[in-house]
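Quick illustration, no need to memorize.
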Amino acid sequence: MYRTHNCGELRIKNINTEVVLSGWVQKVRKLGGMTFVDLRDRYGITQLVFNDETDADLSEKAQKLGREFVIKITGKVTERSSKNPDLPTGEIEITVNDLEILSKSEIPPFTIEENTDGGEEIRLKYRYLDLRRPNVQKGIILRHKTTREIRNFLSNKGFLEIETPFLIKSTPEGARDFVVPSRMSEGKFYALPQSPQVFKQLLMIGGYDKYFQITKCFRDEDFRADRQPEFTQIDCEMSFVERDDVLTVFEEMTKHIFKKVMNIDFPETFPRLKYDEAMEKYGSDKPDIRFEMKIHEISKSAKNKGFKIFDDAEYVGAICAEGLASYSRKQLDKLVDFVKRPQIGAKGLVYVKYNEDGTFKSSVDKFYSAEDLKTWADTLSAKPGDLILVMSGNKKETLTQLGELRLEMGDRSELRDKNKFAPLWIIDFPLFEKDEETGQLHAMHHPFTSPKISDIELLDTDPEAVKANAYDLVINGNEIGGGSIRIHNTEMQEKMFEHLGFTKEEAEEQFGFLMNAFKYGAPPHGGIAFGLDRWVALLNGSESIRDVMAFPKNNAGRDLMIDAPSEIDKQQLEDLHLTVVKKF
C-alpha cells in the first residue's frame, strides 16, 4: 500500500492514527535536532517530522532528500506545536517511523511553487513539472469540474453525446485547414475539422434532435493569448427550435455551471443587446458590461466649430472616465500613445478635464468654449472631477478604437473585477460583412446561418442590411459561445452560397452532400458552440487559455516539450507521395 490518505486530507481528528503517505518532497528544513519535510500531492501538503534523538539514521536519511524526490512514509498523526493557519493540514504533522525513496529527482529547472521563478518558455518545455504547481492544477481541476457539469446538464435535458469524424473534407470556414495527406489515395488530403458544423446539421437531418459533443477543433491561424491550433469546443444542436428556445436552454446551462462550479447565482434573465446597439454603446460586439463608461456620439455639437479634425470626420464619439480629471499631462500623453499603437491605429486623442470647481480644461480650448464643453459633458452625464476622452474619424473604426480605450480606462480605474461576472446575449448580427478591398461579401458567422425571416426579402435588394438569426454569449468582454438558427432548405442555402461568391459547381463540390441531404426532409434546427478553454480560463481568472490546457503550444504554435512540429523521415514522405520544397 502506497497510501492510506492523501496529503491534503488529515486533520486534528486524525491524531494518533497510523498512516501511509506518498508524494513529492516540496521542501526540507533542519531546525535543531529536528528535520521537517513538506510532502506534496495534488490534494495538498502535509508536514513530516523526523527526530534526531529517537531515530538518528532515519533523520539523516530525511536530510538527504532533494526537492521533487518521490517518497513513501509511514508514521503517526500528531498535533503540531507551531500551527500553520495557511495550510488546511496546518494543525497536524506526521511523526515518521519509516521512509522509502520511490524515485529520486534531479534539481528541477524552476521551483515547483505557485510563484515560480520559471518563465513561460521553460515551463512549457518541462510542462510535466509545471503541471505539479498548485495553481496550474487548480485550472486543470476546474476544467474537469466544468466539463462534468456540462455533461450532466445536457444529458439530463435529453441531449445525446455523439462523436463526429476528425478526418474530413477540406471546406472553407474562415480559417485555414490543417491538412493530412492520405497514403492510400495518392495526391489527396483529409482536413482536420475547424468545427463539427456540417456533421451536427446532418445529425439533425438524421433525426437526433438534441446533440452535443465536447470535441477538439483545429484551425491553422495566427496565435495570441486566446488562440491555439487545437482547442476544445462544446458543440450543441437542437431540432424544431427557434432562437428563444436555444437561448433559454443554454442560458440555463450557463447558470448551472456558475452555480455548481463557482457557487455563483444569476437570478435574473441575461440581458440581450442587438449588435448595432453594442457597437454604438461599447465599440465591440463582445462588450464588457461590468462597468458603464458607454460611448456617446457628440458629432452634432463637436462639428462646425473650426476644428478641422472633427469637422472633416464622419463620426465624433466620447467616453467619460469617472473621477480622472486629476490625470497629469504625462498620464494623458501615455493615453495618446496607447491609442496610436498599431493594434488600435488611432491618429490622436482629445481630452476634456471637468475640474472639481466646475471649470473645463481641454486640448481643444482654442476651438470650443466652456459652454460647448458643458454640452459634451451633459451628453455624457459627466460630473466635476471626470475626464472626457474624444476620438473621431470613420465611424466603424472610431467606435472600435473607443471600445479599446474604454477597456483600457476600465482597467486603469480597476472596474474589471475578475471575481464579478456579467453575461449577456448579443443578437441580430449582420448576415454578411463586406471585404472593403474586394467588395466581396463574407458570412459573419458561417455560410449555414439563416437570415431573420423578416429580412429575407432584402437578400436580393440590399444583402448588407440583412440581419442573421444568430447570437453570441458574452461574459466580461469574452465571446464564450456563438450560434444560430440554420438554413434547412436547398433553395435558401443556394441563395446564400450565391451571395458569398460560390459558383454552382463550387457549392456542389464543397457542400453537395449537405445540399442533397436537405432534399430528404430537413427539420428546422439551430445550435451553439462554446469555447471550453476560454470559458474555464474566465472562471479561473486567467488571461490565457494556455493556463487551463494540460499541454498547450506556445505563441508560435510549437510544443516545446515534444518538439513539434518536426520533420519526418524520407521514407514517410515517399509513402505519402510528398516532396518538401524548402525556401531559402
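DSSP finds 16 helices and 22 strands in the chain.
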